[in-house]
Specification:
Blueprint: H1 25-35, E1 39-43, H2 49-59, E2 64-69, H3 74-88, E3 96-101, H4 112-120, E4 127-131, H5 140-152, E5 157-160, H6 163-167, E6 172-176, H7 187-194, H8 204-207, E7 215-217, H9 230-233, H10 240-258
Parallel strand pairs: 1-2, 3-4, 3-6, 4-5, 6-7
Helix pairs in contact: 1-2, 3-4, 3-10, 4-5
Length: 260
Amino acid sequence: GMAQLGGHAAFIESRTTQISHGDTEKEMGEIFGRYFDGIAIRHVDWGIGNRYLNLVAEASRVPVLNMQCDFYHPHQCLADLMTVIEKKGRDLRKKRMVISWAYASSYLKPVSVPQSLILQMPRFGLDIVLAHPGEFKLMPEIIDQAREQARKYSTGFEVMDDMEAAFKDADIVYAKSWGPLLTTADPEEGKRIQDEYKDWITDERKMALAKGDAIYMHPLPADRNIEVTDEVIDGPQSVVFDQAENRLHVQKAVMALTMR
C-alpha cells in the first residue's frame, strides 16, 4: 500500500529489534514517531494489545494505525463495509447481517473482528444478528455500545445461540471463529470448550437458509472444511477475495487521509 502511494515502509519485528531488549511503548512512540510519518501496529495479545497501541500513540507525534488489537480490527471492518456496499448497494437499511461464531481447530482467535462489526454496521442501516455458543460472549461494554448504536440508527440488534436460526433469511453471512476469551484465560480449557461445537460450520445446507442472493464473508485465513466448507468459500456466494483486496484499498485511504 505504501509503495502504491509513493512511499516506503519498514517492517519492524519485535524479536529482532530493541523491543525485545526492553524498549517500552513510550520509546516506540517517541523514536519511531521521529523516524516515520506513521506507525502501523498489530498486537492481539488478550488484555495487552489495545493498551499497548494507545500508549504508543500517546508518545508518538505521528498517526498510529491499529492493524488489529485484542479489542478492535478497524481496517478489516472498513474493508468489510466496502465489500458489503459493492455487493448490496449503499442503501443497506433492513438488510440482515449475521455475525456468527464458527468452529476452528487452530488457535483461539481474537474477538476483535466480531466486536468491530457489531459496532460499525448498525451505523449504515444493517440489522445485526450475533450468534455464538454461550461460552463465546463478546465484551459486555462492546455489546452495550452496539445496542446503543442500533437504537441511535433505528436498526435491529439481536443475540442468539443458534447458528441455523441466525442464518435464516440473512442477506449477509459473516461466520468466523473466535476464542472463549471472556470465559477462560487457559488455552487448553479454551480448546476443550471450542471442540464441543464442531457442528458450527458454514456449509451449503446452512447457507440455503439465508436468502438466495446472500453473500458469504470471512476475513481469512479460514480453516477450510472445519470452519467453512470448500463448496461455500469457493462458491458463487463467497466474496472473501474481494474482502481481501479491499483491505489494501481502505488501508491506503486511511494512510492518505492521516499521514500528512
